[in-house]
């Protein structure tokens, strides 16, 4: 039998339900904050990611699913969502009409990484991007929105880490001193960090290698190089996080893995995930629209790794958020037409309704209802048809009651009100 590709997975049964719950809750919350949905292609010109995310990043330099299409074009499966959304924003001319635009997306991303728990080659991101807004209150509100999603999903033991990585000028000045310092420790650095030292030295700061961590402890600090205006901005972000009651830690070494970031960046980490602990990462990317479209529009966003949330989500969450009334109809050949009328009425009242397509005995149908997980059954025998009523059987309590359809619908409405 053919297997799913390495690092990829099917989401089926309870896992699919959990993913759907994550999608539904996120979309609902994003809309509360004025974000609207955007859909962009899974495949883009490779150039977009090279210019947008950065050629020296691991994501673009090492992990892209890039290939030529039949027309010889260099294209890639998107490794992340931001670059494509920025392209779509510019293509739609949003920056000309009204640069303030807030959108969200959810869908698969592709990175050719070594798979492990929480790290896959196809993974689902739930992302938001906000254009044309730059203010500490805005940034704190975006973080609040991420926590709204995680808290509603009852994901606990989370830590918010924030940092300010300043402007590219700040970082360039800092890089000189950092490289000088790291060169003194070159022989002790991990192989990855040796490679990064000249290409992308800031990434050495968030290396997970034990020896690198020790070396980084005494490294010069980026915060020393951040300009005054940025420093005030970052302090104000913290002020609003305090006002919103959101706890955080300032992590000097948080630099993020994609080149487009500037100013405020953040990650939300779970203590229950092991090595791949970041469930949400984001920050400001105030220069990306200039790089891709020549327009000076500030922007910010984040993405939540939905596959990592799956590892943290309790099964109960599905039942808690699912208030749809579910009913299985038991009937006979003689009551088929009556059953179809009742099924129509119940579905119009937003109930989930199923029935047997080749009905055998009532006993047989009741067993099927039980197997499918229904707790409530509507029985439509010849007596019910004659009296124009329905019989409701509760399979858990083994109780049974006969009433009119309208009485039953009234009870369902009351329950959901
Ligand atoms: P990122 O940090 O590369 O940022 O990814 C965001 C989140 O996606 C991570 O925190 C993680 O939860 C999840 N993720 C990343 N790679 C994998 C993987 N291989 N397997 C499973 N989950 C993964 C971005 O992608 C930015 N576009 C976020 C952003 C949006 N920044 C501004 N706007």
Kindly list the characteristics that best describe this protein.
alpha+beta; eight-stranded mixed beta sheet; five-stranded mixed beta sheet; 18 helices; 16 strands; binds histidyl-adenosine monophosphate
Please provide a written account of the structure:
This protein has helices at residues 14-32, 46-54, 58-61, 82-91, 94-97, 136-152, 168-184, 191-199, 202-205, 210-217, 228-243, 288-293, 306-312, 316-321, 336-348, 362-371, 382-387, 405-416; strands at residues 36-37, 43-45, 66-68, 74-77, 101-110, 122-131, 158-164, 249-250, 264-270, 278-284, 299-305, 326-331, 352-355, 376-380, 390-394, 399-403. The chain is elongated, with a radius of gyration of 27 Å. It is α+β, with helices and mostly antiparallel strands. Strand 3 and strand 4 form a beta hairpin. Helix 6 crosses helix 11 (228-243). The chain contains 18 helices and 16 strands. It starts with 13 loop residues before the first helix and ends with a helix. Bound molecules: histidyl-adenosine monophosphate (HAM). Residues 80-82, 111, 113, 118-120, 123, 125, 127, 129, 257-258, 278-283, 301-303, 305, 307-308 line the site of histidyl-adenosine monophosphate (HAM). The site of histidyl-adenosine monophosphate has 26 residues, from strand 6, strand 10, strand 11 and helix 13.
């Amino acid at each position: 039998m053919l297997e799913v590709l390495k690092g990829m997975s099917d989401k089926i049964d309870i896992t699919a339900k959990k993913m759907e719950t994550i999608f539904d809750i996120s979309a609902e919350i994003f809309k509360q904050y004025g974000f609207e949905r955007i859909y962009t292609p899974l495949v883009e010109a490779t150039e977009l990611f090279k210019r947008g995310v950065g050629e020296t990043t691991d994501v673009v330099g090492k992990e892209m699913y890039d290939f030529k299409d039949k027309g010889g074009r260099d294209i890639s499966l998107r490794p992340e969502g931001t670059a494509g959304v920025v392209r779509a924003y510019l293509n739609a001319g949003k920056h000309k009409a009204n640069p303030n635009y807030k959108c969200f997306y959810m869908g698969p991303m592709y990175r050719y990484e070594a798979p492990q728990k929480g790290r896959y080659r196809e993974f689902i991101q739930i992302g938001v991007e906000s254009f044309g807004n730059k203010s500490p209150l805005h940034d704190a509100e975006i973080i609040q929105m991420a926590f709204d999603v995680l808290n509603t999903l009852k994901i606990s033991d989370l830590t918010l880490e924030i940092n300010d990585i300043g402007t590219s000028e700040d970082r360039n000045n800092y890089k000189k001193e950092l490289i000088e310092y790291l060169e003194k420790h070159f022989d002790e650095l991990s192989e990855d960090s040796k490679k990064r030292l000249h290409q992308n030295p800031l990434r050495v700061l968030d290396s997970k290698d034990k020896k690198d961590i020790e070396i980084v402890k005494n490294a010069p600090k980026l915060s020393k190089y951040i300009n005054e205006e940025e420093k005030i901005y970052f302090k104000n972000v913290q002020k609003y996080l305090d006002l919103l009651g959101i706890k955080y830690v300032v992590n000097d070494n948080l630099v993020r893995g994609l080149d487009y970031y500037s100013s405020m960046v953040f990650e939300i980490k779970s203590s229950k995930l092991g090595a791949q602990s970041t469930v949400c990462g984001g920050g400001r990317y105030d220069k990306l629209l200039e790089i891709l479209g020549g327009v000076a529009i500030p922007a910010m966003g984040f993405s939540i790794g939905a596959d990592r949330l799956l590892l943290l989500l309790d099964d109960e969450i599905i039942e808690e958020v699912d208030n749809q009334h579910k009913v299985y109809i038991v009937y006979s050949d003689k009551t088929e037409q009556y059953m179809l009328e009742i099924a129509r009425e119940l579905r119009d009242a937003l109930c989930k309704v199923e029935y047997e397509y080749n009905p055998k005995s009532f006993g047989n149908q009741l067993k099927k209802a039980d197997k499918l997980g229904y707790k409530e059954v509507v029985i439509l025998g010849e007596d019910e048809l004659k009296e124009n009523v329905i019989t409701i059987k509760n399979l858990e309590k083994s109780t049974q009651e006969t009433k009119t359809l309208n009485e039953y619908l009234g009870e369902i409405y009351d329950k959901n009100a």
